[in-house]
Amino acid sequence: MFQGLEHTAIASPDPKRLAEWYVQNLDFRINYFYGGNYFVRASNGTLLEIIPSEGDRAPQQMKDPGIRHLAITVDNFDTAVEELRKRGIEFLTQPTAVQGNRLIFFSDADGNYLHLIQRPQPLP
User: Fold this and answer.
1) Residue 116 burial by CB count (10 A; 0-12/13-18/19+): exposed, middle or buried?
2) Which of 43, 36, 118, 46 lies closest to 77 in space, CA to CA?
3) 31-60, pLDDT tens digit by residue?
4) What are the phi and psi torsion angles at 67 (to 5°)?
5) Cβ of 75: how many Cβ atoms within 10 Å?
6) pTM summary value
7) Cα–Cα distance list, 110 to 20, 98, 120 (Å)
8) 8 A C-beta contact, residue 77 and residue 102
9) Strands 47-52 and 37-41
10) Which residues lie across from 40 on neighbouring strands?
11) Which domains does the chain carry?
């Protein structure tokens, strides 16, 4: 019956600009748009819906309640980090290894937290 997440939505003051950020920096593609909403699709098929926001964003910290980050899987961590550097991405942390996984945090054009992750073994 329940198959899993179909997409995750992010509210943005400028959905088109944020959608284009994902296209330009993470090689997503704009899959569908209507009425100010943009769906962007990653090469593995995952979807983000970017919708118009209302009001001001509250300051956020890494462990505040709620959704904290989006993890972007990569097959070559060092190459992906270097490519993002070339694209002007500023990282929030240094590369880290946790239980064999390699990761590094950064944020998108709206300040949402993301991180790259390369796992030696997929999660069970």
Assistant:
1) buried
2) 118
3) 999 999 999 999 999 999 999 999 888 888
4) -65, 130
5) 7
6) 0.92
7) 12, 27, 30
8) yes
9) antiparallel
10) 30, 48
11) 1-54 (3.10.180.10), 64-124 (3.10.180.10)
